[in-house]
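Researcher: Go.
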Amino acid sequence: MSHGKQFTLFSHKRGPNGWKVALVLEELGLTYESVYLDFQKSEQKAPEFIKYNPNGRIPALIDHSNSDFIVWESNAIIQYIVDKYDKGHKLSIAPGTDEYYIQLQWLYFQASGQGPYFGQAGWFTFYHPEKVPSAIERYKNEIKRVFGVLESVLSTREWLVDSRLTVADLSLVPWNHLTTPHLEDVDFEKEFPATAKWHNKLLKRPAVEKVWAERTRLLAQP
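Model: Structure:
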């Protein structure tokens, strides 16, 4: 790939997981070119992409400065980026410390607790060919449970780890931002005030604003 950027990021215009990686790249000032796969054409399942990610999902990242090393799974990508390119720990915690494992804890929580449940809520609410009220109810309750977990921590401190912004906070932004407008019978700012304050503060960061503006621009295209 001859675009001259350090990374190629395979992503999707709408899906949150690729945008998680873009947020970290932008915050660290790293250069990258995004390739947005068309799921309607099953490009994520095509042989030319499967060679990058055998799971047939986005995101996947190619690091051209590291012999075109490929890594997939969004939070594994995030951990790779900060381990190799955040030596000053602007967004990350030094390995071997207790706080490092707290950071990992939240990245795993995002991958296992937030993303799947929020995604299933979206699927059964908007895309499943038939309405399944019990499934919709289950996953909406899981959304509230996840917000409750965040609230229990953020009501006692400003950030999730070590009193400062880390990739743990950034990893949760896209799914939260896509989900909160669709919460029915939930007043996000009233019921989860500390989480809402934290979330809104993250949205105002210049890198987050830049990335989300690009997503908005892409989605507005015909």
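Model: The longest strand covers residues 7-11.
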